[in-house]
Amino acid sequence: MSRQPEPEFRPHRVVVLALDGLLPFELGIPHRIFGRPRDAEGRLLYDVVTCSVRPPGPVDTDADFAIHVPNGPEILATADTVIVPASYELGPVFEDGVLTPELAAAFAHIRPGTRLASICTGVYVLAAAGLLDGRPATTHWAEAERFQELFPQIEVDADVLFIDDGDVLTSAGVAAGIDLCLHMVRRDHGTAVANDVARRTVVPPHRDGGQAQYIHRPVPDPQVATTTAARAWALGRLHEPLQLRDMAEQEAMSVRTFTRRFREEVGVSPGQWLTQQRVERARHLLESTDLSMDQVATNAGFGTAQSMRQHLQTALGVTPTGYRRTFRTGTGANTASVRYGPVDTLN
User: Fold this and answer.
1) pTM value?
2) 166 neighbors 18 (Cβ within 8 angstroms)
3) Three-class SS state of 169
4) Which end of the chain, N or C, is surrounded by fewer C-beta atoms within 10 Å?
5) Among residues 197, 59, 192, 173, which one has the least CA distance to residue 118?
6) Burial class of residue 196, CB neighbours in 10 A (0-12, 13-18, 19+)
7) Is the Cβ–Cβ distance between 123 and 88 less than 8 Å?
């Protein structure tokens, strides 16, 4: 029996749509995140290109410089993923919720089934194209109220960093675009690849999409006690049945004070954070070891395989067995819809 030839390797193409008035920082996020991942043979896993709604040429930014974009809108027809960064010059898209003729013509090039994503106010473009009708979406918290008024048919959530609704993903402002792009890398190729990109980019490897956009105390006052030591202590004991009072005792705080301070600093409750860390531990073990499901569940602190299954199903929309099958074989087929963080496990 003759051996079938290996399929030709083709990187996943990400096309970034550069619009007038774009924010250079946000335009650079997809190139930085998707331009780094490589497979075991050193081949780039993504091919990232930029296009305009016009023929190749200059595109204005919100800074004191323009950029030269080498591709016109026809390149959108080659995309596996299209990302729309923020722009402050959307004209009728922002004012009336309708696409300009140029944008409508550009979007006509996008093939059915292409994954779509937006960063910050780029969500206005997806909404004006009718791609978010009846679906959940997010944007920068300062734009959320106006966005909801302009597009009442969309379920807007201003309290999250990003929303993964399968083939359409939206993120909050600025740095949340990094979280979204890392999430897509993690969804495509697993935590090990995404964590490597995060290390090279010097950013946190994972902030759950359900984390609050606005954290009341992102940089604690040096005169005020923090919850940093408790978090470090808990990370070294994820396999143990931790209680909220155990974490509070590490900071010599009452449970009530600790819970309030924790949410102010991290943006989620201690229980949600702890479950997020256990899900991440389980994902890593499922990808990188041959441990049984019971062993992974014990090591990650879920106790039983059934408990781990419930938590991964809630957080990722996939079973532990399905997750391992996807990322141990490198198929990157996980297209789970993710909106909110894992459920709380502490009182």
Assistant:
1) 0.73
2) no
3) strand
4) N
5) 173
6) middle
7) no
Name the amino acid, one letter, at 270. Answer: P
68: three-class secondary structure by DSSP: strand
Q: Is 51 considered catalytic here?
A: no
Strand ranges in the chain using DSSP code E only, listed in sequence order: 12-17, 46-51, 57-60, 66-69, 81-84, 115-119, 136-137, 155-156, 162-164, 168-171
Contacts of 43 (CB under 8 A, 6+ apart): 9, 11
Dihedral sign (CA 327, 331, 337, 339):
positive
Q: Are 276 and 268 in contact (CB under 8 A)?
A: yes
pLDDT surpasses 80 at 81: yes
Encode pLDDT of 241-286 as tens digits.
999 999 999 999 999 999 999 988 887 899 999 998 999 899 889 9
Bridge partners (DSSP) of residue 155 are: 136
Local structure of residue 87 (DSSP, 8 states): B
Using CA of residue 127, residue 194, residue 178, residue 265, what is the dihedral sign?
Answer: positive
Question: Any idea what DSSP says for residue 121?
Answer: G
Residue type, 39: D
- d(CA 102, CA 86) in angstroms, rounded, equals 17
Rounded Cα distance between 286 and 304, Å, is 15
From 45, 119, 120, 230, active-site residue: 120
Q: How far apart are the first and last CA of the chain?
A: 61
